[in-house]
Structure formats: structure tokens, C-alpha cells
Write a structure and sequence with these properties.
This protein is an alpha+beta fold. Helices cover 31% and strands 23% of the residues. 39% of the residues are buried. It holds the Pfam family F5_F8_type_C.
């Protein structure tokens, strides 16, 4: 047994050096020193974990890992059981293609038991009890790669995607679609894994399934998700929806500020596909005067979503012609390659950068003097092309008519830019015309520098 164990250790060491993937039988090494067993590359998933979630306390053992996934079994799972390795690795790779990455590690942790320990546990990068991992924990139903053994884990992965994509916690759309998003999620995953038999099975199952929301006998898959998938962009329309919501929908720190209404839901899905989906929504859900008003409001509140619709607002870009002033400029001056004039040059590929700030109290401000006093009720920032730790996190907006006496009109804390050169819009409750607007940034991501590609201010008239 000792010789065989040493041979297995040697094989694992060779696989670790290869750096691509590793298959483990590490539960047999419990009595060996860590210096013998621990041959993993830096950043590898732990070989064993003591569960600390959902009243679980079992010790689970890593069976396999690669750059996409880490698979763990409890001691009772009958080995060898290897089909999950490739299946979940490819699944997470497809998730990344459609929805982006999830956290710094960006790895799916799949935990399996031989017998049920209770309801499926799902953790995300925002959950400390899961170790801030994208993780699910459930029991096998037999050992075959079919039915619930693949559907149930994908339901868990769908929940991870819904509640932690694009660096934001929760789902703004859940109040509208309830638990139905998994229907198209499973169909899409099986389709892209070229598991057509399973995709056809999911199609048949969900094509006749009804829900009671937003009205009785709503066919979410048949009348909404599948027509969008088939006729309006496939998987990319799904990923675009999540991306647009994260980019434009109001947030409070790393969570959404409130739930979507139906008009906003249709507006953002239309933006995700590039097509006006109101006719499809009317056919799928019915329609009401209330939803029509919500849709018109959504088009006014989020006018930059890219699909054909008649504008219901008049937007004035107040930054045009403004004079920019900052509390500290780039070392090469305002006109330098990364000077303060880049803040308002209407070019998202340029940026303003200034360093030498206090890491713990940023204490930086930037100011626009408008051509004349005007009401600002919307503004946006565009993040820089690199270095997220330079992004602003906390700030306060002030207005003034003499440049000396200032009135606070907006405060933001714990803001997150989930991408580079990402534009985020902010609505302000303000009815007073000011000639000067100043933003005081009190905290960034920890750097001694601030960078912003663009800062523009607007008056939106509905």
C-alpha cells in the first residue's frame, strides 16, 4: 500500500507541474505529512474542506480541479466517479463565455454527498460561509450522468449566475421572472455543450410549463425566453441582459437598489437584443396601462439602451462648453496626455489620471463651471482602462452659484465599476439650477491615484 501511495503521489506531482488539471484520490493520504502530499501549484483549491454552511460539518475531499472547477466528494461517495470532472469544467467555461467571470478565483466548486444532507446549498462570491466561492452542495441520485444528476447542479449554477454576475449581489429581475430563468439557462448550457438530447428534453419539459406570474397561465419559456433565444441573438442576448442591468440599473454598493418593474424589464431585454420587444411582451404576458407607463418611464430613465424606440425625453448635455477644474492635476498639467481636460473631452478612450493622493483619505475634487446655470438631474462616470483600485468608490456632489457656497445634491457610497471603460449613470433629485457643480471623491479602491475616463452631466426633461 505504501509503495502504491508513493506512486500516486508522484503522478499527482507530475500533473501539478503540468498545471492544467489534477485528479485526486487524496483521502488515502490523510496520515502522510503535508510536505509529501501538498504538491499543488500556488492558488490551487484546498485538498479538503470542513463544511461550514447550511448546518453541514462534514469533511469533504477534493477529487479533481482545473482552471474552471473543483470537485469534492464526501467519504461515502463510491469511487471512481469521474464524469462530473469534464461536465462541470465545460459548464463553467460556457458560463464564463456568456456571463463573464465571477470573482478573482472564478472557479466553480461542486460538492457532492452520497446521501442527502438536506436542501441544495448554493453559495456565491458574496457569501462568507461558502468561503466567498461560487459553490453548490448536494447529493448524487445514483451515479449516472443523466436526469437530476445533471439538471439539479445546473439549477444551482443558474442561481449563482442570477445572483452574483458582473460583480453585483442579487437579481433585479427576480421580482418579474421569479424562478423561471433556469428554464432557458439549462437549455442554453445543454445546447452549447452539444448535448442535444438533453436540450430537447428541457425544451419539451418547459415548453408546456406555465407560471402564475405576471398573469395566470404564463408560458415563460415558450412565449418569452425561447423566441428571444431563437430570433434575437441566442446566448449573447442573455449575457447582454445581465451586463446592461449591472451597468445601468441603480445600485447601492454591490447590490441592486430595488427590484425591476415590468416596463424596465422589457426595456432592458430590448436593449440586450437590439430589438423592440414590447410586441413580444404583449403577446407573452398581456399588457396594461400601468406597464405602458412603466416602459415610457424606463425609456426616459435609461435612454441610452441601444434599440429602436421613440425617445420620450429631451436630454441636454450640460458638459459641452464647461470649464473643468480639479483640486490636483496630472503632473503634465491639464493639457497633458492624462490631464484634467480628458475628463470632459467626450472620448471614452482617453482618461484623466492623478497620483500622490492619500490612500486612506482621497480628498480629491473636480468641478465643472457650466456655460450658464442649469439643473443637473443625471450624470455619469466612465471608469479608466486599467487599475480598478483607482476607481472612485465614495463621493458627494455639490452645486453652487458663486463657487464658494455649496449645496449637497447627491451622495454615493460603496460604488462598484464591474468593467474597464464602463459608463455608469446616476440620477439626481435636483430642481435647482447651479452654475458650478463639484464632485468630492473621498474614497477609491485603495490606490494613491484617481483615474476617470469621462464625467458628463445632463438635464433630462420627461
Amino acid at each position: 500500500m505504501y509503495k502504491n501511495s508513493i506512486k500516486i503521489v508522484s503522478l499527482i506531482f507530475v500533473a501539478s507541474l503540468a498545471g492544467s488539471c489534477s485528479q485526486d484520490d487524496n483521502y488515502i493520504f490523510e496520515d502522510y505529512p503535508s510536505s509529501v502530499v501538498n504538491t499543488d501549484p500556488a492558488g490551487s483549491p484546498a485538498r479538503s474542506i470542513i463544511e461550514n454552511w447550511s448546518n453541514h460539518s462534514d469533511k469533504i475531499w477534493r477529487q479533481y480541479f482545473d482552471n474552471n472547477t473543483a470537485i469534492y466528494y464526501d467519504e461515502a461517495v463510491k469511487r471512481p466517479l469521474e464524469w462530473p470532472y469534464d461536465f462541470f469544467s465545460k459548464t463553467w467555461k460556457e458560463v464564463n463565455k456568456t456571463y463573464g467571470t465571477f470573482g478573482d478565483e472564478n472557479r466553480l466548486y461542486a460538492v457532492f454527498h452520497n446521501e442527502s444532507k438536506g436542501p441544495t446549498y448554493v453559495g456565491t462570491i458574496f457569501d462568507s460561509e461558502s468561503g466567498n466561492r461560487s459553490l453548490f452542495d448536494m447529493a448524487f441520485e445514483g451515479t449516472e450522468m443523466k436526469g437530476n444528476n445533471i439538471d439539479n447542479p445546473l439549477l444551482a449554477v443558474s442561481q449563482i449566475v442570477e445572483t452574483s454576475s458582473n460583480g453585483l449581489k442579487g437579481s433585479a429581475a427576480k421580482a418579474i421572472w421569479g424562478d423561471t430563468y433556469s428554464q432557458i439557462f439549462l437549455y442554453d448550457i445543454y445546447t452549447n455543450l452539444q448535448m442535444q438530447t438533453e436540450a430537447d428534453r428541457i425544451f419539451a419539459l418547459n415548453n408546456t410549463k406555465t407560471s402564475s406570474f405576471p398573469k395566470a397561465n404564463t408560458f415563460w419559456f415558450r412565449d418569452w425566453y425561447y423566441p428571444i433565444y431563437k430570433d434575437h441573438g441566442g446566448r449573447m442576448s442573455l449575457g447582454n441582459f445581465f451586463k446592461l442591468v449591472a451597468q445601468f440599473y441603480p445600485t447601492n454598493g454591490n447590490t441592486y437598489d430595488h427590484d425591476m418593474n415590468m416596463g424596465e424589464f422589457v426595456h432592458f431585454f430590448s436593449g440586450a437584443t437590439g430589438d423592440d420587444l414590447q410586441p413580444l411582451a404583449e403577446e407573452a404576458f398581456g399588457w396594461s396601462d400601468e406597464w405602458q407607463e412603466e416602459l415610457l418611464d424606463a425609456r426616459a430613465d435609461f435612454p441610452t439602451l441601444n434599440y429602436p424606440f421613440t425617445p420620450v425625453v429631451n436630454i441636454t448635455d450640460l458638459t459641452t462648453g464647461a470649464i473643468i477644474t480639479v483640486s490636483k492635476d496630472n503632473g503634465n498639467g491639464a493639457e497633458g496626455a492624462e490631464g484634467s481636460l480628458k475628463l470632459i473631452d467626450n472620448d471614452l478612450n482617453s482618461k484623466f489620471l492623478v497620483g500622490g493622493l492619500n490612500r486612506f483619505d482621497t480628498d480629491f475634487w473636480m468641478q465643472q463651471e457650466l456655460t450658464e446655470a442649469a439643473v443637473v438631474n443625471k450624470y455619469n462616470f466612465t471608469s479608466g482602462n486599467d487599475a480598478p483600485d483607482r476607481d472612485p468608490i465614495n463621493w458627494e456632489v455639490f452645486g453652487s452659484n458663486d463657487g464658494s457656497t455649496w449645496t449637497s445634491i447627491d451622495t454615493r457610497t460603496d460604488q462598484v465599476f464591474t468593467g474597464r471603460n464602463q459608463t455608469r449613470e446616476f440620477t439626481v433629485v435636483n430642481e435647482t439650477a447651479y452654475k458650478y457643480y463639484r464632485i468630492s471623491i473621498t474614497k477609491n479602491g485603495g490606490s494613491d491615484a484617481i483615474q476617470i475616463s469621462e464625467w458628463r452631466q445632463y438635464f433630462v426633461r420627461k
